[in-house]
Amino acid sequence: MHLIAQTLVDGLVLGGIYALSAVGFSLIFGVLHVINLSHGILVLIGAYLALIFSQALQVDPLLTLPLVMAVLFAAGYPYQRFLIQRAVNQSGLGSMLLTFGVALMLQNVMIWLFSPDMKSITPGYAFASFRVAGLTFDAVRVSALVASLVLLSCLAMLLKFSALGRVIRATAQQTMAARLCGVNVPHVYALTFAVSAAFAGAAGIVIGIILPFSPADEALWTLNAFVVVVLGGVGSPAGALIGGLLLGIVSTLTAQYIGPAFPNVTMFLLLVIMLLVRPNGLLGNAFAASR
Amino acid sequence: MRRHHLLLVLGCAALLAAGPLALPPFYVRVGQMMLYSAALGVAWTILGGFAGYASFGHAAFIGVGAFAAGLIEVQFATLPPFLALLMGLLTGGAVCAILAAAIAYPILRLRGTFFAIAMLGVSHVCAELNNNVDALQGSLGLNFPPVAPDSVAPEAFFYELYLFAGLAVLLIAWRIRQSRFGAGLLSIREDEDTARMLGVPTERYKRAAFIISAILTGMLGVIYAHSLGYITTDSVYRDDTNLNLVVFSLLGGMGTLFGPVIGAGLLVFITQVILGRLLDFHLFATGLLLVILVLAAPGGALGFIRGWRRRRVQVPAE
Amino acid sequence: MKRRDVLLGAATLAAPAIRSAQAQTHKTLVFGGSVPLTGAAAETGLNVNNGYLTATKYLNELLGGVEIGGEKYRIQLKLFDDASDPARATTLIQRQIDDGTDFFLGSFGSNIVLPTAAITERAHKPMVQTGGGSDAIFTRGFKYVFGMYPRATRQFAAAAALFKTLHPTPQSYSVIYTNDAFSKTAAEGVKLSCDAAGLKRLDTYELPQKPTDVSSVLGSVRSKTPDLLICVMHDEDSLLIARQMVATRTNVKLLFQGLGPQLASFRAALGKYSEALLCSTYWDESVPYKDKFFGNSKQFADYYHSKFTRPIAYHTAGAAACILTYILAMQAANSIDPKAVRDALAAADFETFYSRIKFTPQGDGDPLLMGGMVAQVQKGKLETVFPVAAKTADPIYPAPPWDKKA
Question: Which residue among B54, B254, B294 places its CB closest to the CB of A98?
Fold first, then answer.
């Protein structure tokens, strides 16, 4: 009983982090209909930036969040507007290959800049843990989880209540109608991408403090994001959260009770079953309601 | 592909077959890579190009085919090498057929990018199972006895083998394309729902295309494993293979028979011959190439040539 | 890779071209081969590459080249990135053979080394490599391929040889390993070497890749206690086992942990309980071997640190030793004819700063001379107890039980 409770708790903590790591991917997928294969690289850039900033400024890595998000926002806008947008008009494969090409280039650049080695960010509370009701909680993982939940809520509110959020939702639901109402669609697409990139960077920080990372990891985070989106549903922070938590719990339960080698196998089986039963994910496509 | 095209292909093949006699060994190996890649590209295009189900996970079949063949050949170590290879080919193809048939129903219900990424998932799962289940020997590695006779250089032997295999794959793809089955696949690519409404047995067709594509890919994987002599999971389940198969078609011309052949030839030439000497730069260069390709020639080389021809024809009319 | 290292690497590679004027007086000696600088093995690939660069730069710049058969040679490296892709590696190795490269250095990973070695073997060009340990490389009858480590299943031979010299002779052992490729292969080696040494195997325990609790395994170790308990796994898992053994007072006469006790942090974490633990060590700056190029390991490390900011790893030293081994073999053969050099390599019995170099007839490293060393924690310090040539202390056996450790 105790073991299963601990496994579930570990899964939930992991799941919150998966959710944050996927939300940017989900938003781009939902609004732009682009599979961003450079998503994992954006996540890693966030992690490396957090490492650099926290060392240079001598602050806790979580405090570098605004700075990292700003950098990725600023980089994401032109990346979409001047590069991806040119491929969006073609088939879905065009934008996929373009973002894959960019991912390869950036991975190579990161190897030059940061070496292919594993890096890790070690905050002051890295080895601390506390116990509640017989369950062990890792201080780092809990702070990562809290940061993830706060950021996901912020994004949900941004989409729901802000002017930018309204325009993004309108564009996603009825691109043509939004354009007729005077929405500058390429601009909104680029802004959406910039927001997504910023959240990918934020996820990078959170991942960086709990796991070691290296440039070769990028594919892992792209694939994880895809699975989360398929499980939870496209386009919404809530969908990402549900998908992330599900993935986290399935991973830890499998590792504990079936075998340490098998989380990816069960994860994939779950993915296929989900696609068969509910192809749009548990919460459906956040923007498809009015189509 | 019309009749005179067939003659052209056979003529080219005869010319290519003479390659190892004239070329230095490095170019024979480059040719070997080109033929292997082209054959894989054509096998991929039966599903990805004709039916429009672009798979990002065909390396799964390369790996499953290679390991199935290796595991069975170890059991019959006394067979002469040629028979062992033949048995490996049959086993690899059969196991891939079973795998494809087993996953065809669920996975072919997915469309577009969902199918693409689900296949990527399949290849990762196969790789992990292969690596972690002891009996499959993925992490320790599998040996393949040399099959080339001592009098023939191995690179020339595999060159001719790939040429033969490539021609066989091309012929199969061509026959499919000419048949009612092929027309059905094209209709699935253009509009699957309408095709089904018009009475095309879309489910059966795309499942057949998937299985044929898997068998051919698996058999090519068996030959590849023999050409290396020793494989671990990392040798055959490769994400760059997964994506290159898509790139071959995109580079040459999506959905065409010769697109992947041209694309494979170009990409192998660029990455192995032109970028081969770069020490820590080639990943960047490959990425840059993809970006330029998508932005400059979205229809691939064939699309580019066709567009250019069309423009040239249209000029006097204007 | 720091920017500086890349530039430095590029400069070294370009150097022979720039100094073409000097080439009048110096002949060049070309070493070909590949290293994985991108992809999954990039981290080790960079260490190997840096080792090659260090040796080349040192021999060219500080020693002004090497003398073989009365001629001065400058060394030139022609390496390419194989990205751990066997197809790419085999094609590009062939290009180097066509270009007339006579001597090859190895990549990292047996699945790359073996297919490339098959090509160099067929061309009768030697390859000296640090990156492929699989038995498959050394059981094919290759004559031109030499490895700086014993084949995988013999890598425990040194430790097994040590066990036989202990007094009273240990009778039985059990082995615990985690479910990952590295530990699994190593555990195979442990079983082969210990069985061959006449030890009785009581139990084999497989743990998950990331074990979090080993109390059940330790329970069965207590009910069926072997003389030797051998753990092959990564550092952090070794620490977990040691801690739980202390906590549950699971005593054996000797605890051998493949990786772990060689780290100061590991010994600090265990405190007095680390006393008498055994572990494998490969090269570090304190190994006592000498050569005429670098002098000793300390000087090699100092030179490395003056050129690179990246921490030094044993792969780096092993890679540098590949080039030194070649030079020693060429000097012994008095020739740079590939066949003559191959024969000299096969007959090699040299000393380099890295270790003594002697290959088996199949080409892998001699299991006792090149199989790493065995060290024991004694009074908080790591003392080398095997092989005899590098010994700094006698082994303590049997180890005191946990509660008697002072």
Answer: B294
